[in-house]
Amino acid sequence: MTSQQFIFIILAAITLGSAVMVVTARNLVHAALWLIAALFGVACLFVALDAGFLAVAQVIIYIGAISILIIFAIMLTRGVGQGTSTQTNANWGWGALLAVVFFGGLVWLLSLWSGFTTQKPEIGRAFDPLRQLGQALVSPNAYVIPFEVASVLLLAALIGAIIVAWDRRLK
Description:
Blueprint: H1 3-24, H2 28-48, H3 52-76, H4 92-112, H5 129-138, H6 144-165
Helix pairs in contact: 1-2, 2-3
């Protein structure tokens, strides 16, 4: 086992452990904090795979924006996250067994694949994925229209959220 594989296994274990804690935490704030840890683990996996741009985007977008938004939503909804509840689903054992069987089958199928034994191909120095991404986002023949439509939809959602949250008693 190479050092890269060892680091990948450690990072994957930390990420999976954090993800399990997200869905098993009884307190919503704790679950949101475990979500941040899981997303940071994914960013570390991107770094291990030499995808620095994706790692930075993961940290800025998901940890810096989405997770903080989730924490604000949890804290602003009064009383929802105060108590802890017990597991009320009687079939959780069957779900866990099915997940373990599915994961074992996936590991077995991937162990048969020859892609894990081959080395990754070398990419030439002329290949610049950031330049190609930037050109694709602003080129009139590529993704500029969907990019602008998404920005208008996000602006409309932001305005709608402000209108819904506006306290009418302040008038």
